[in-house]
Amino acid sequence: MPAIRDQAGGEFSLDICNCDRSIGARISGEIAKLYGNQGMAANPITFRFKGTAGQSFGVWNVGGLNLLLEGDANDYVGKGMTGGKLTIVPPAGSPFATQHSAIVGNTCLYGATGGKLFAAGTAGERFAVRNSGAHAVVEGTGDHCCEYMTGGFVCVLGKTGYNFGSGMTGGFAYVLDMDNSFVDKLNHELVEIQRISGEAMEAYRSHLARVLGEYVEETGSEWGRELSENLDDYVRRFWLVKPKAANLKQLLSSTRANPQ
Q1: Coil, strand, or helix at residue 23?
Q2: Nearest one of 182, 176, 172, 150 to 247, comparing CA atoms
Q3: Is the pLDDT of residue 40 over 70?
Q4: Cβ atoms 119, 142 nearer than 8 A
Q5: Whole-number Å distance between alpha carbons of 53 and 14
Q6: Cα dihedral sign, 239-243-248-251
Q7: Cα gap 31→41, rounded to integer Å
Q8: How far apart are CA 144 and CA 126, in angstroms?
Q9: Greatest Cα-to-Cα distance within the chain, rounded to the nearest angstrom
Q10: CA–CA distance, 142 with 258 (Å, rounded to integer)
């Protein structure tokens, strides 16, 4: 297509249903074949979908491909993605509170190495398993979030399941803990947690503020907006999760090298 051949980019709108699987894979392959994983990041192609996506929405997504979905998606969203952006929001007029409503399935971002995922709702189990470079914001997760994670960054704006951070050796996460239950859900073997409300953690508070601002801009989430506009009231409820072996002063430097 000319948008790829001429590196011109462009925007397209399409309907989608749950029999449409691995959406974006072929286009990512064409981009990577001609220009590499990040070759069209400066002139992206954007697809706006409405409906329910089948498995592996945005699989192997490359820099220069942005997929926006108004609806919901099944398992393996962003599997192996290397760049670009995936944004998933509820249908317009949805009456459900996003922080209590599922919007993507299990094992999202499996093996991802870059790019960003914004999901205005909750995810299933094993969110960001084996993630090594993608950045993600979601409003809740099931069990085993950040399992075997080696890099990247995850922000969970709500409840998680059990066994959070199992085998996690890289990257870091923010988790909003409104009911003080997160300590019992964390796998303490390789990771540790601390608050970000103190003066010594101001850099992380500022980073979280930027993350929330970008998330609201991308998704329009009301829960995200509540947190962003009233962060002073909520910041004491956030935990920073990091590998025990990681240097606290170097964590943020890893967020600046994320391929888009």
Answers
A1: coil
A2: 172
A3: yes
A4: no
A5: 11
A6: negative
A7: 10
A8: 5
A9: 53
A10: 25
Name 98's Cβ contacts closer than 8 Å, sequence gap at least 6: 90, 120, 121, 122, 139, 221, 222, 223
Whether domain 96-246 has CATH 2.160.20.60: the reply is yes
Q: Does residue 61 have a pLDDT over 90? A: yes
Ramachandran assignment for 121, one of left (phi > 0), alpha (psi -120 to 50 degrees), beta (any other): left
- Helix ranges restricted to H, 113-201: 182-185
Structural domain boundaries of the chain? Answer: 1-70, 96-246
Q: What backbone phi and psi angles, to 5 degrees, belong to 235? A: -60, -30
Q: How many CB atoms within 10 Å of residue 49?
A: 23
| Structure-token pair, residue 95 | 């009456």
Q: What is the C-alpha separation between 88 and 26, in angstroms, rounded?
A: 20
Cβ atoms of 136 and 154 within 8 Å: the answer is yes
Q: Using the Cα atoms of residue 236, residue 241, residue 244 and residue 245 in order, give the sign of their dihedral.
A: negative
Whose tokens are 């790019």? That residue is 115
Output the pLDDT for position 2. Answer: 85
The amino acid present at 231, given as its one-letter code, is L
Q: Determine the residue type at 119.
A: A
Residues constituting the chain: 260
Instruction: Supply the angle between the helices 222-229 and 202-219 in degrees, to the nearest 10.
Output: 150
Matching residue, tokens 């999901």? 119
Condensed to tens digits (0 to 9), the pLDDT of residues 174-231 reads 999 999 999 999 999 999 999 999 899 999 999 999 999 999 999 999 999 999 999 9
Q: Which helix (H) or strand (E) holds 216?
A: helix 202-219
pLDDT tier for residue 39 given thresholds of 50, 70 and 90: confident
With H, G, I as helix, E, B as strand and everything else as coil, classify residue 132: strand
